[in-house]
Amino acid sequence: MKHLPVFDKIPQFSNYLEFFKKKFFSIPFLAAFNTLTVLILVALSLYAKLNKQGDAVERLFSDPFNFWFPYEGILTGVSEILWCTPVAICAFTFGVLRQKERRSRSGIFLFFSALLLGVFFLDDRFRMTLILSRLGISTKIIYFCYGTAVFLYGVKFWRYIKTTPYLPLVAAFLLFALSRFEDIFESQSLGVHAMLEDGTKLLALLNLSLYFWHVCHQEVWRHLRQSEKR
Length: 230
Hints:
Layout (H helix, E strand, L loop, with lengths): L12 H12 L5 H22 L2 H7 L13 H24 L7 H22 L1 H7 L4 H23 L5 H18 L5 H40 L1
């Protein structure tokens, strides 16, 4: 009698396995990113086990919370959510538009918008400017590079930006500039410093989110209407 593999003895196991593989690999990069994340977690677990650094790994997942001041950092959390909003919707809309027009003007604009804002978000969230300044790089040089990037972005896409209600976008970048200047020339009052640096940034992010929400909504709606005509 021929011996069957152990999994073949389980009723419909091969069918379920094939169904799972089909669904799992139907989403681009799903398998790759899941595998990469699992490998990173396994590597961290092995590092913590071998070097007895469990507390250090635990801090990577720690959620700062002050029982006596539960509101501490709440506006920073709101700012981080607002950072993610334009980056996500610009990237998503770019993916939708490029299915039809790979080099459309709006698609390229949204791609570079997501890229630029993504860099700003990573800098703000992971304190890249602060780290570089501790390594000896002047913050003025870093902000000059960011300012140059924004200037080139504006020059490159001004023709398209003019076709949109661009006032919130311009206001947002001006508020970002004010926030960065306050970071360089710190006020003596903590309250004033917080409002001029973080308050202006929060207002800038609100304008950015609403602007790109509107622009992306209009572009997706235009894309759907053109698809229906065909």
